[in-house]
Amino acid sequence: MALASLARRKAYILSRNPLSSPVDAFKLSFSLRNFSRGFASESEENDVVVIGGGPGGYVAAIKAAQLGLKTTCIEKRGTLGGTCLNVGCIPSKALLHSSHMYHEAKHSFAGHGVKLSSVEVDLPTMMAQKDKAVSNLTRGIEGLFKKNKVTYVKGYGKFISPSEVSVDTLEGGSAIVKGKNIIIATGSDVKSLPGITIDEKRIVSSTGALALLEVPKKLIVIGAGYIGLEMGSVWGRLGSEVTVVEFAPDIVPTMDAEVRKQFQRALEKQKMKFMLKTKVVGVDTTGNGVKLTVEPAAGGEQTTLEADVVLVSAGRVPFTAGLGLDKIGVETDKAGRILVNERFVTNVPGVYAIGDVIPGPMLAHKAEEDGVACVEFIAGKHGHVDYEKVPGVVYTHPEVASVGKTEEQVKALGVDYRVGKFPFLANSRAKAIDDAEGIVKILAEKESDKILGVHIMAPNAGELIHEAVLAVNYGASSEDIARVCHAHPTMSEALKEAAMATYDKPIHV
Ligand SMILES: Cc1cc2nc3c(=O)[nH]c(=O)nc-3n(C[C@H](O)[C@H](O)[C@H](O)COP(=O)(O)OP(=O)(O)OC[C@H]3O[C@@H](n4cnc5c(N)ncnc54)[C@H](O)[C@@H]3O)c2cc1C
Ligand SMILES: NC(=O)c1ccc[n+]([C@@H]2O[C@H](COP(=O)([O-])OP(=O)(O)OC[C@H]3O[C@@H](n4cnc5c(N)ncnc54)[C@H](O)[C@@H]3O)[C@@H](O)[C@H]2O)c1
Q1: Ligand 1 pocket mutation, candidates 74, 87, 89, criterion most atoms within 8 A of CB
Q2: CA 456 to CA 495: how far, in whole Å?
Q3: Whose CA is closest to 442, among 486, 485, 489, 476?
Q4: Is the ipTM of this complex over 0.90?
Q5: Rounded CA separation 34/71 (Å)
Q6: Residue 37: its pLDDT value, please?
Q7: How far apart are CA 430 and CA 426, in angstroms?
Q8: What atom of ligand 1 comes closest to residue 82's alpha carbon?
Q9: How far is CA 159 from CA 167, 239, 328, 444, 482, in A?
Q10: Does 299 lie in the same domain as 208?
Q11: Residue 75: closest CA among 85, 65, 66, 67
Q12: What is the pLDDT of residue 43?
């Protein structure tokens, strides 16, 4: 790197970092010189050290390096990408896609005039395709680290002081990594239930459910949340008889109630069974399968259910084991989540936390936004995450996607509102492809017509929602969406029609 360009970069960073002292300035120029040479020794002080290489951590590390900060990321797993890439978002979406293809071939192709003499599941090939997707993507992040000159340390990090992390490296040694700013991005782990031991064979977490060696005849899912419904769908499509046991009166309790009812009906049509308001009180694994004793959540008569495999998907908890938080005095809440202020700083100056390990939705895209905003603050810029406008998607078929408030939340706020709905049964593209189960529902403030929430159930709701995410972020009205020309024939026209139904009348119903 030319000296002039180094000087410009240094001046730029210092101009945006009001905390930089002359000593910091010296360290910065030292680190920038090393940065320009493309290496960094672990004993040198970093501007930013990130513990955890998941969507929160790796994105924070890349962004920090892009902002000219000398950055090291410590990850214990041996591969980057965290829960999401290794055992979460990516492998589950790979299996959801493969199992959907099988299900379509078996149940829908003939109706489109495509005849197959036989359709079979080849589970090892399906799993290999999933593993290939995962390894390509995790290696891709290593490439991005190299490209952006992020130092990658493979090992388990623990605090020895607010500016030093000791790492037990995967190679067997240990190292001290120093940083002016340390970001905790250690993510989450499966929440275990009392009396139920996960062996990842017969009683599995999502990780085991992503790697079963055969299709279970009977699968019981504990918890009707994101993981339960997605993984229940995968195995249900491949032939399992799926029963979902849920403690609450409803599936996905955070979803808009009207959409949720339609969603539950759609899943029941796919033969998924639900036992709501039900709790698990005992598990017996002494025989070949698993016997699960359940009773009504409010107490009452017990029933025994039998299954080949039980999936425990009753939520996730922040992961901070062995991190040494007590050593440096980082505060957590009762649920173990690290408490941070609006700049992601913990109660210990210089120590930050982002992603699943702090309060807020446990979603990969939220963790990424946290990561970018956190390092922007560190670099003296203005980071921003609006937690009210984080979209959520359940990747079943149909998918359910939402942004903003549910009708129940709007009612609770006492706001006067209007609702506009449009069914996919009246959408020409959905009818053309014979996949028309679903609805768009828009909630808008009555007086201003400002959109408060959008809920979509549709085959590709996870893609369709982003027009609504943009609208909600820009403070758009339903009329704003309705007056935008949408291409025909597309599923997106259903959003336009629902918007017309919100402030006026739709054309096609
Ligand atoms: C089955 C499943 C499916 C999911 N699907 C989706 C989805 O479709 N969309 C979505 O938005 N979200 C999804 N999620 C949630 C998503 O995976 C998380 O919200 C996201 O991974 C959180 O990112 P993170 O960076 O905060 O933590 P994580 O991804 O958990 O990463 C934390 C990393 O830190 C490492 N680590 C922990 N402690 C240490 C230490 N002391 N030293 C070094 N390294 C350490 C861990 O090994 C881990 O790799 C899914 C989750 C699961 C389980
Ligand atoms: N598509 C996605 O974005 C996606 C996919 C998978 C996971 N995730 C994330 O991972 C996290 C964990 O997923 P999850 O499905 O495990 O949690 P979740 O919070 O989505 O759902 C857990 C469900 O289990 C129920 N439950 C809790 N204790 C129970 C008990 N003892 N018996 C029966 N039911 C019980 C809850 O009422 C809830 O409905 C979620 O917060 C989600 O954000 C996201």
Answers
A1: 89
A2: 9
A3: 476
A4: yes
A5: 11
A6: 31
A7: 8
A8: 49
A9: 9, 47, 7, 48, 53
A10: yes
A11: 85
A12: 56
Q: Are residues 374 and 431 in the same domain?
A: no
d(CA 179, CA 69) in angstroms, rounded, equals 11
Q: Helical H runs in 450-489?
A: 461-473, 478-482
CA distance 353 to 364: 15
- For the chain, the residue count is 509
Q: Which residues line ligand 2 (CB under 6 A)?
A: 193, 222-228, 230, 245-248, 253, 279-280, 313-316, 361-363, 393-395
Contact 498, 440 (CB under 8 A): yes
Q: Is 416 marked as binding a ligand? A: no
Residues 305 and 346 in one domain: no
- State both tokens at 195: 């009396």
Instruction: Check whether residue 51 and residue 184 sit in a common domain.
Output: yes
Low-confidence ranges of the chain (pLDDT < 70): 1-43
pTM over 0.90: yes
> Do residue 296 and residue 157 come from a single domain?
no
Question: Does residue 322 share a domain with residue 301?
Answer: no
Domain-embedded: residue 272: yes
Look up the domain containing 489 and give its range: 398-503
For residue 451, give the H/E element and its range. strand 451-458
Q: Provide the CATH number for the domain around residue 303.
A: 3.50.50.60
223 and 137 both lie in a single domain:
no
Say if residue 161 is in the same domain as residue 245. Answer: no
The answer to whether residue 179 is domain-embedded is: yes
Q: Is 302 part of any domain?
A: yes
Secondary structure class of 507 (helix, strand, coil): coil
Provide the 8-state DSSP code for 347.
S
Beta-carbon-side half-sphere exposure of residue 46 (alpha carbons within 13 Å): 34
Q: Does 488 participate in catalysis according to the annotation?
A: yes
263 near 401, Cβ under 8 Å?
A: no
* Distance separating alpha carbons of residues 204 and 197, to the nearest angstrom: 9
Backbone angles phi, psi at 260, to 5 degrees: -60, -40
Res 125: pLDDT: 98
Burial class (CB in 10 A: 0-12, 13-18, 19+), 78: exposed
Answer yes or no: are the C-beta atoms of 150 and 61 closer than 8 Å.
yes
Residues 6+ apart with CB under 8 A from 275: 243, 244, 245, 246, 294
Number of domains comprising the chain = 3
Please identify which of the residues 107, 112, 384, 488 carries the catalytic annotation: 488
